[in-house]
Write a structure and sequence with these properties.
- The chain is α+β, with helices and mostly antiparallel strands.
- It has 2 domains: 84 residues, Winged helix-like DNA-binding domain superfamily/Winged helix DNA-binding domain (Arc Repressor Mutant, subunit A), CATH 1.10.10.10; 170 residues, GAF domain (Beta-Lactamase, 2-Layer Sandwich).
- 47% of the residues lie in helices and 17% in strands.
- It is built from 10 helices and 8 strands.
- The strands form 2 sheets. A 6-stranded antiparallel β-sheet has the order 5-4-3-8-7-6, with helices on both faces. Strands 1-2 form a two-stranded antiparallel sheet.
- The protein starts with 7 loop residues before the first helix and ends with a helix.
């Protein structure tokens, strides 16, 4: 299963563990709209063009339903069709929604100048992420050098359990809530170094709670070490995380803890105070 898709069943499992009612049981919930978005989500998982049969397979819909949803989304401009292959792909119209979200997001507006200052000070890649259930989403990514393509793009999702930003934010949640999110995560390793054992992950989160930051060493990307500190809201819950990332060959864990963790913490506090 791709880490970019969170099945509805996982949402229900989290709801049961946290005592919340699954949103799908609410009479206001429109199931057909959910199915339409499932088609768009399927493209995020595959990151390629898909024909109607492939859409049906990815969503679990029958071919007729997949064809209707794809046709409608194409008519609305959210899918485009390759004239050579007759397959669908996401259209540029999706980017308009992303721009509107980022432009209107007060956290992004407040954080960006501080992140730019941090990048200048540390001469490393600097990111801002938020926690979305079992995953983190990157909202701001400021490069300092040529990097892997995926590490440069906003909107990327990775599992929270194996990322420094995810652990930093999970550390600011009640322990039972954090454990519920981890237990219902798809803990497929992203690299040979990814820690997947729930108790070991909870131990790392406990260290992050004590230290005020978390470090991930090659757990989400081979050759990369990342330190992250949480941005806390007025209710003492995690609002975001500030990341500093660099090649592992250039910095060991002791150095990143001693030198770069205080920089991430200071920037996170500035963002929390400014927004």
């Amino acid at each position: 299963m791709s880490s970019d898709i969170l099945p509805a069943s996982d949402d229900r499992a989290v709801a049961e563990l946290t005592g919340q009612e699954p949103v799908q049981s609410n009479p206001l919930f429109v199931g057909s709209l959910e199915r339409g978005f499932a088609v768009l989500e399927a493209f995020r998982a595959t990151q390629r063009e898909m024909g109607v049969s492939e859409i049906a397979m990815a969503t679990g819909f029958d071919k007729s339903a997949a064809q209707r949803f794809a046709f409608t989304l194409h008519a609305l401009g959210y899918l485009e069709k390759n004239p050579a292959t007759r397959k669908y792909r996401l259209s540029h119209q999706v980017l308009g929604l992303s721009y509107t979200y980022l432009r209107a997001n007060p956290l992004v507006e407040v954080a960006t100048p501080y992140l730019a200052d941090l990048r200048q000070a540390c001469q490393c890649r600097v990111d801002l992420s938020i926690l979305d259930r079992q995953q983190i989403i990157y909202l701001v990514r400021l490069q300092s050098r040529r990097e892997a393509f995926g590490a440069t793009l906003i909107g990327r999702r990775i599992p929270a359990f194996c990322s420094s930003g995810g652990r930093a934010m999970l550390a600011r949640l009640p322990e039972d809530e954090a454990r519920a999110l981890i237990e219902t995560s798809d803990r497929t390793p992203l690299t040979p170094h990814t820690v997947t054992d729930v108790d070991a992950i909870m131990a790392a989160i406990a260290h992050a709670r004590h230290d005020g930051f978390a470090v991930s060493v090659q757990e989400s990307l081979v050759g990369e070490i990342v330190v992250a500190a949480p941005v806390i809201d007025a209710e003492d819950r995690p609002r975001a995380a500030v990341h500093i990332a660099m090649p592992f060959a250039e910095c060991d864990e002791d150095t990143i803890r001693a030198r770069f963790a205080p920089m991430a913490i200071a920037t996170a506090r500035l963002i929390a105070g400014g927004g």
